[in-house]
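Wait, can you check?
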Amino acid sequence: MLLEDLQELDLKADGTQARIQDALGEVEALDSRLQEARAAIEAKQGELAAVEGERGLLEENLATENGNMTRSEANLKGITTQKEYQAVNKEIASARKLIAELEEQILQKSVRCEELNGELAAMVSDISSLEENVSTQKVDVLARITAEETTAAADEKARVELLRSIPAGMLKRYEKLREVRRGVAVVEARDGGCMGCNMHIPPQMYNNLFRSEELITCPHCQRILVLHQGGQE
């Protein structure tokens, strides 16, 4: 009966620890959501910086081409031959074409920057709400963990007290059975059978349970048998 009481505490502790681990998993998942959102913002900021950098280079090239065209137009005034005049005009035409292409590319980059800034603003707003939501949820989860830990501490104190009444050899046997029988080492014997494996127990062995003179285990599953005589016919 002492072992049954011990098992009740141990099974309760198993459940408590499982709930604590689940709660810790919830905290980890919440933190992961925030990390993913922050990483997405960083990636978007990186994309925006890259586009802005590309636009900056295009603007530098545009300034260079505008300067070149201005000089070519100034050179026209000093040209005296038709051949030179045609060559410079060709340079100017090429420069104008390149300038138009650069201006179009700059416009496209500017439009993309506006889009990215809009997306980034929305993401920042979303993560602000997410942080508040996660913070609220974590407070609730951590409160549950604290309550479970308080229960676990009280149960452990009761377990230590109970262990003082259980012989070391019996405790060792119980703990080994717990390991191999998924936490259940002690089961009730009822109506001539083992409630752990639902197998029939030899009549003499079952009768010996009523005398409570020795530790009796099921011959099939090896679990320790306990008889609740008040419920027996």
